[in-house]
Amino acid sequence: MEGLGGQELLRRAGPSPKGLIRCAKPLGCSRCSVRKAAGVQQIPRANGLYRSRVLGRGQNVQCSLSQRSVADQPAPTKRVPRSAIRLAVPSKGRMAEDTIQLLKDCQLNVYKPNPRQYIASISQMPGLEVWFQRASDVVRKLMYGDVDLGIVGYDMFREIADSDPGLIILHDSLDFGKCHLGLGIPTGGKWADIRSLDDLKAMPEWSETNPLRVVTGYHNVARKFFTEKGFEHVVLLSADGALEAAPLMGTADIILDLVSTGVTLRENNLKEIEGGRIMNSQGVLVGNAAALRESPQLLAVVHELIERLEAHLKADQFYSVVANMRGTSPEDVATKILSCEALRGLQGPTISPVYSWNPSSSSNGAGAAAAERGFYAATICVPKARLYTSVKDLRAIGGSGVLVQPMTYIFDEEPERWQKVLSTLGL
Fold first, then answer.
1. 47 is a domain residue
2. CA dihedral defined by 111, 113, 115, 117, rounded to 10 degrees?
3. DSSP assignment, residue 330?
4. Do 124 and 108 share a domain, yes or no?
5. Taxonomically, which superkingdom (predicted)?
């Protein structure tokens, strides 16, 4: 438990046989105000940590004044040689379900014969192993080199990797798990008039002996955020769940957590404030940079993954629309369509004559019959959000018989993200 203050700190430490807990240094302060308030004698150690004794209670408290982040922890020095390429994915929850569904939508079917197993395969990509891990361990295993690729939320990547230069984001927008990391502030009492981050920082309550207590599971992100925003007296607390209840219980003043719709915040009498949104998050594909530079086989797998992901995610934004258009020629129909910006599609419409049976014109051929009737078929790509507007625009320029079909893939030229990966790796 990090950063518990005063008598509450002593009470929480009581049940432990060793009485050891962990406390965060207030940001911007030269010593730990929690220990000062609780009456703690600090005894420095050679490793940069302080072993402290709470006066009169016989409890030991361990406080890290160096504020080492997760990314600073040394990686294992011994690595097991292997030939298979490994992709780590979340093992539980909505992120796990969405990850497997995304791969399936890209025609990459994850086969796991036993639900208790932590390893699976993808028949379309032989030689690629899929490892199911906790979301936080996906990032850690990437840092250690135990896996080569990983799919995880951007929030977890930022918290665990902490700007680790050994990792590279290969795809930053997998279009699932969308949410944001933000502050949750109580709505009533002294908080009623707090509407912005500046209001929060200006509250006179915060001092060295009474710091702002923030409960969160994102300590690295929170520490950087409050430091950059100029907060001087902040203590970060830990909790495994139900963070929204902490302010009402008196355990913390505010929370810092993931927000999706905001319903849970509102139902627990919490609100968001201006400037309190820390980052947006969604699923990302991450790779180990050293492994990518050393393995041509891994690069080939990444190239295929990016191609499949880009083709599916791009197609998922559009409908394929086919309409019968009146016009004197294909050029005439194309001009009408291109005059409307919303109908231009990816590169423009595909125009072809409509061949219909007309006995009176059979001697002249089907092409002549199509020209006489003045109908041509136009195929365009339309953004899903503008479907009905596009149908009305087509009707306005002579369109009828409009057909709408979902799109599965759009394979363009080399994806821009692939070129960016090569540039980042210096290849």
1. yes
2. -90
3. H
4. yes
5. Eukaryota
Give the other-Cβ count within 10 Å of 131's Cβ: 19
Question: What pLDDT digit, counting tens, does each position of 188-210 carry?
Answer: 999 999 999 999 999 999 999 99
Instruction: Specify the DSSP class assigned to residue 386.
Output: G
Amino acid identity at 381: C
Show the tokens assigned to 297.
């086989």
| Judgement on whether residues 330 and 400 belong to the same structural domain of the protein | yes
Radius of gyration (Cα) for the chain, nearest Å?
Answer: 29
Residue indicated by tokens 């078929």: 377
User: Total structural domains in the chain?
Assistant: 4
Tokens of 219: 């300590």
Domain that holds residue 186: 179-281
User: How far is 379 from 394, CA to CA, in rounded Å?
Assistant: 11
Angle between helix 135-144 and 154-161 (nearest 10): 50
23, 36, 149, 205, 234 from 211: Cα distances, Å: 13, 12, 40, 8, 5
- The DSSP bridge partners found for residue 64 are 24, 49
Structure tokens at 87: 């992709």
Q: 163: pLDDT confidence band, cut at 50, 70 and 90?
A: confident
- For 374, counting Cβ atoms within 10 Å of its Cβ (0-12 exposed, 13-18 middle, 19+ buried), the class is middle
Question: Is the domain of 291 the same as that of 338?
Answer: no
Say how far apart CA 70 and CA 277 lie, in whole Å. 23
* Least confident piece of the model among 65-69, 89-93, 154-158: 65-69
Q: Which of these, 138, 401, 101, lies nearest to 287 by C-alpha position?
A: 138
Coil, helix or strand at residue 192? coil
Give the pLDDT band of residue 115 (cuts 50, 70, 90): confident
Distance between CA atoms of residues 286 and 99, nearest Å? 13
Question: d(Cα 61, Cα 11) in Å, to the nearest integer?
Answer: 12
Q: How far apart are CA 135 and CA 133, in angstroms?
A: 6
Which tokens belong to 227?
A: 């430091």
Separation CA 114–CA 125 (nearest Å): 20
At 326, phi and psi to the nearest 5? Answer: -85, 135
d(CA 48, CA 46): 6
- Please say whether the beta carbons of 141 and 287 come within 8 A: no
Examine the domain organization and report whether 264 and 336 are in the same domain: no
**Predicted pLDDT of residue 49:** 41
Output the six-digit token pair for 315.
């197609």
For residue 5, the tally of other CB atoms under 10 A from its CB is 21
User: Is position 373 within any domain?
Assistant: yes
